[in-house]
Amino acid sequence: MEKDIRESIEWAKINGDVLKSLESPRPLFWVILVVALSMFGVGVGCEVYQYQIGMGVANLNNPQVWGLYIATFIFWIGMSHSGTLLSAILHLMHADWRKPIYRFAEAMTTFSLMTAGLFVMVHLGRLWQFYYAVPYPNERWVWPNFQSPLLWDAMAIFTYLSSSVIFLFIGMIPDLAICRDHLHPGWRKKLYTVLALGWEGTDRQWRNFRVTYLTVACFLIPLAVSVHSIVASDFAMSQQPGWHVTSFPPYFVAGALYSGCAAIITLFVILRYVFKFEEYMTLPILKKIVRLTFAIAMVWTYLNAVEFASVWYSHDEASKAVLIQKATGIYAPFWWMMNFCGSVVPFVMMIKRFQTSIPVMFAVSLLLNLGMWLERWMIVSPTFSHGYYPYLWDNNQWPTLVQWGIVFGSFGWFTLLFMGFCKLFPSVSMYEVKEMVYHRSLANKHVEQSLTMNVNELEEKGAH
Amino acid sequence: MSQHHILALFNNFDEAEAAVAELRASTIKGFSFDDLIMKSPIEHPEVESVLGERSANVQWFTLFGALFGGITAFTLIAGSQGNFFAQLKGGKPIIPIPADLVLTYEMFILGGVYITVLGFLICAGLPARRSKLYSSNVSEDQVGLLVKVEASAAATIKSIFTKHQALEIQEEAGK
Amino acid sequence: MSVSNMLENWSKFRHMHPVDDKPHEEYKWAMSIDLDACSGCNACSVACYAENNLPVVGKQKFDAGQQMHWMRIERYWDDDGREFPDQGAQFLPMLCQQCEAAPCETVCPVGATNHTADGLNSQVYNRCIGSRYCSANCPFKVRYFNWYDYPTTDNVWPAEMTQQLNPDVTVRGKGVMEKCTFCVQRLERAKNNARTEGRLVHDGEVQTACQQACPTGAITFGNLVEPESKIARQWAHQQVELAARDKQAKDEQEGGSDLRGYRIFEELRAYPSVMYLERVRESAI
Question: CA–CA separation, A60 vs A53, rounded Å?
C-alpha cells in the first residue's frame, strides 16, 4: 500500500516547503485573486443596487418571500461543517492523516461561515436595523424573540464562528511560532510575533495545549451538529408543507457534511496545485477523503429517501402535493438534477481507478456541490409555490440577475478570504506533519525491529 | 547566590530523554528537577512522561465555563422574557422551556470554549515574552532542555548534557 | 430582580394562550364573512386601500406579485368544463385572520409581531427588520412585504390622491412587513372614547373599513367577549368556538353539521379570529 506521507522528510524541509507558500506568490495565485475580486465586485454592485431600491429588484414577491439568498445561506453553512467537524472527529479518533489537510479545512469553515453571515444581512429587508436581533440591554427592556429559530440561528452561528476561529487559532499557535522564528523581518514577522503569544514549545505549554485542543474539539462536535440542526429548525419548526419534517435536522447535517467533504476535495486539488503541496497532500490521503465522502453521500441519499418516503406515506395532503410538484412542476429539472448529482454521481467514487485521479475527483466534487446547492434551493422555493393556500399555487418567481449576482459574488468573497488566508498563514500544519512523520517512522522502526527479531529467531532455530 | 540558565539543544528525542533521565536520577546540589524545562517542536506525550507528573489544570476552567455559560444563558433569557411582558405569543407560553434550552445549549458550549481558552492562556503562561535563552532551532527540529541552576552546579549539568551529545549549549548568568 | 420576577410569576409565564389561558377580558375582536352574501365587488378591498394608506403598486409590480392588498378578493372557478364567463366564479375575501396562536408570531426574530390584549395580531413596523419569516410561516399568506420604498415611488399616490391619505395611519417604508390590522386605528379611538366615558365599546360603535364599505353587509365585526354582540351571537349560533382544538364539536358529529360557519385551516391550530360562512369549500378548489 502506498504511504500517506514519506517518513523520511526532513523536518527542516517541512518548514521550508510550507513557509515557501507564504512568500512571493505564483502568477496563478494572482489570476485567481483577480477573478475572485471581480466576482466579489459583481456581488457588491448587486447588493448596493438592492439596498438602494429595495428587495423587490430581486424579484421576490409576497408568497415567495425567500429565494436564493436563504438557499445559498444554508449552502454556505453546510459547507462550513466539514472543516471543523471532521477535523475534531478525526482528532479524537487519532486519525493522523487529517494532519496535512485539516488547517485549510478549518479555514474553509471559518470563511464559509463568514459568507453565510453575509447572506443573513443581504436577505434582510432593513439590514441597517439588523442589531435589533442582538439581545443588547436597553432602556425599554425590549428584547429579541428568543423563541424564533432565526434567533437561534444567529446565536448558533456566532458560537460556531467564534469557536471555529479559536480552534483554528489555537491549533496554529506552534506554527505561528515557526513563522516568527524563520521568516524574514518585516510587518509579517511582527504580526506572527504577536499572534504566537510567545510560544516556545516548553513542556508546560504543550501539556496545556494538548488538553485545550482536545477539549475544544470535544465541544465543537456537538456544536457543529447543533448548528445545522438549528438551521434545519428554521424549516422544521415552521408549519409549512414540505418543511415541517421531523427528519430535517439529521438530513441537513448529512447534507452539510456531504457538501463540506466535496469542498475539501475541491480545495485539496487547488491548493496542491497552486502551492505545490504534492509531498503533503498525497494521493492516499485524497483516497481517504474520497471514501469518506462516498460514505456520507450514501447517508445523505438514505435520509433523502427517508424524507420522501415519510411524506409519501403520511396522510398530509399538502406535503404530498409539494413533493409531487417538486418532481413534476416547474422545478422538476432542478429537482432531478439534484438527485442525480447527489445520489448517482458519487458512485464514480466507488471506482478505484478514479479515487486517486485528480481531474475526475475535481469534477465530481464540483458536481456534488452543485447538487447540494440545488438541494437547498429545492427545499426553500417549491414550498412557496405550492403551500397550503390554493389561491397562491403556481406562484413561480424566477430569480433575477440581482439574486444570481449576489450568489455569484459570494463565491468570489469566499475565494478572496481563503486565498488571503493561505498566503498569510501556513495552510498545512507544520508541527503536526512533523508529528505524523515522527510517529510513522517510529512505528516503522518498531515493525523493522520486530521483523529482524523474528528473522534472528528463525536463524537461531535454523542453527539448532 | 547567582543563578545560571543553561539551554542545551539535542538532535533527537532519545538523547534528550537520556539526558533528562540522568538529571532526574542524579542529586546535584543547587539543582532542582522542577526547574528543568523541555522545549520541543512537536507535541510528544511519551517524551514528556520522563519529566514525571506535571499538572495541567485546564479542565477545571472548562467545567466552570460550561456551567457558567449555560446557567447564565437560561437565567438571562428567561428573565428577559419575563420582563418583556408585551411579548405574548399565542400558542406558546411567555417562557417556553424547549426554545430556551436550545439557546442554553449554545451558550453552554460558548462558555465552555471561551473559558477553556482563557484557562489555557493562564495555565500555559501565555502570552509571554520569550525567555532570553531561546533557539529558533526548537521550532524546526531540535529538542531543547532549559535548566536553572546555581552557579556551582552549572559545570556538572553541562557535562551531563555534553555526555548525551548536545549539539549546542547556551549559558547565561542571571538572577 | 428579573430572577425574583420570574420565580414569583412562574405559573403566569407558563400559561399557554389561548388553550389553557384565561379568555380575553373586555375585548376580543373577531369577524365573520358571509360568502353567500359576498358578490365579489371588491368594495372592501378598495376601502381598505383608502383607509390604510396602501400603496397602489401599478400593473407591472402587480404582475410580479408585489401588490399590497391587505384585503384580497380571491376567485375560484368551477372545474366542470364550462368556459368563462359561465364558469361559476366564487369569491373569498381574504385578510389577516388575526390568529389567537399565530404561526407568524413565534418565528419573528425581533418580536415585531405579537398578540395584543384585545386579541389582535399586531405588527410593529418600527421593530421589523424584514426577515420575512412571518410570511414564510403564514398558512394564509396574508402578509405583505414592502419590496420597494412605496411612499417615495412615483404614481403610488398620484398628486391629488395624496389628499385622501389617512392621517391616522402611518405609511410604511421599504423593507417592512405589513398586513391587515382590523383597522386598529378605529378600534383604538373607539376604546379611548369609551374609556373616557367610563364604559366599554358598544356593539356596532366601531366598524372596520371593509365592513363599512360592503354593500351586501356580508362582513360582521365586533367584540366576541360581549355575549350580546352580533358577532358573538353569530359565532355562538354557528357553534364555532374560538379555542377549539382541531375540530369544532359540531363537525365531529356523524354526518357533519348543517351549520354554515367554519374557519379556514382549523386543523393547523392557529385559532383564526375570522369565521367564514359556507360557499367556497373543498369541492370548488
Answer: 13
What is the per-residue pLDDT for A20? 79
Q: What is the pLDDT of residue B18?
A: 76
Give the mean model confidence (pLDDT) for residues C201-221.
Answer: 92
Provide the domain count of chain B: 2
Give the domain-ending residue among B86, B102, B123: B123
Return the percentage of chain A with pLDDT > 70, whole number.
97
The reply to whether residue B83 touches residue A223, judged by beta carbons under 8 angstroms, is no
Provide the pLDDT confidence category of residue A455 given band limits of 50, 70 and 90.
low
Rounded average pLDDT over A28-42 = 91
The domains of chain A are located at 62-401
ipTM for this prediction: 0.88
Average pLDDT over residues A25-35: 86
- Residues B41, B20 share a domain: yes
Cα–Cα dist C15/B166, whole Å: 75
Whether B73 and B36 map to the same domain: the answer is no
**What is the helix (H) or strand (E) element at residue C99, kind and residue range?**
none
pLDDT band for position C283 (50/70/90)? very low
C-alpha cell at A198: 510567545
A237-291 residue pLDDT tens: 988 888 888 889 999 999 998 998 899 899 888 888 888 888 788 888 888 889 8
Q: CB C6 to CB B84 under 8 A?
A: no
pLDDT for B50 beyond 50: yes
Three-state SS string over chain A comes to CCCCCCCCCCHHHHHHHHHHCCCCCCHHHHHHHHHHHHHHHHHHHHHHHHHHHCHHHHCCCCCCCCCHHHHHHHHHHHHHHHHHHHHHHHHHCCCHHHCCCHHHHHHHHHHHHHHHHHHHHHHCCCHHHHHHHCCCCCCCCCCCCCCCHHHHHHHHHHHHHHHHHHHHHHHHHHHHHHHHHHCCCCHHHHHHHHHCCCCCCEHHHHHHHHHHHHHHHHHHHHHHHHHHHHHHHHHHCCCCCCCCCCCHHHHHHHHHHHHHHHHHHHHHHHHHHHCCCCCCCCHHHHHHHHHHHHHHHHHHHHHHHHHHHHHHCCCCHHHHHHHHHHHHCCCHHHHHHHHHHHHHHHHHHHCHHHHCCHHHHHHHHHHHHHHHHHHHHHHHHHHHHCCCCHHHCCCCCCCCHHHHHHHHHHHHHHHHHHHHHHHHCCCCCHHHHHHHHHHHHHHHHHHHHHHHHHHHHHHHHHHC
pLDDT digits (tens, 9 = 90+) for A189-202: 888 888 888 888 78
Query: For A208, which of B109, B114, B124 is closest by C-beta distance?
Result: B124
The shortest C-alpha distance from C201 to chain A (Å) reads: 30
Residues B62 and B93 grouped into a single domain? yes
Q: If you average pLDDT over residues A429-450, what whole number do you get?
A: 79
Domain with residue B16: its CATH number is 3.30.70.120
Q: Residue B28: which domain range?
A: 3-54+132-174
- Could you please state the CATH topology (level 3) that the domain comprising A62-401 is classified under: Formate dehydrogenase/DMSO reductase fold (1.20.1630)
B113 and B65 housed in the same domain: yes
- Is the pLDDT at B72 greater than 50, yes or no? yes
For residue C258, report the phi and psi dihedrals to the nearest 5 degrees: -90, -10
CB-CB under 8 Å, B89 with C3? no
- The answer to whether residue B45 neighbours chain C at the CB level (below 8 Å) is no
Neighbours of chain B (3+ CB pairs under 8 A): A, C
Q: How high does pLDDT run on average in chain A?
A: 86
B125 Cβ under 8 Å from any chain C Cβ: no
Residues B94 and B110 reside in one and the same domain: yes
Which residue segments constitute the domains of chain C, with CATH numbers given? 24-284 (3.30.70.20)
Q: What is the pLDDT of residue A432?
A: 81
State how far residue B3 is from chain A, nearest Cα, in angstroms: 20
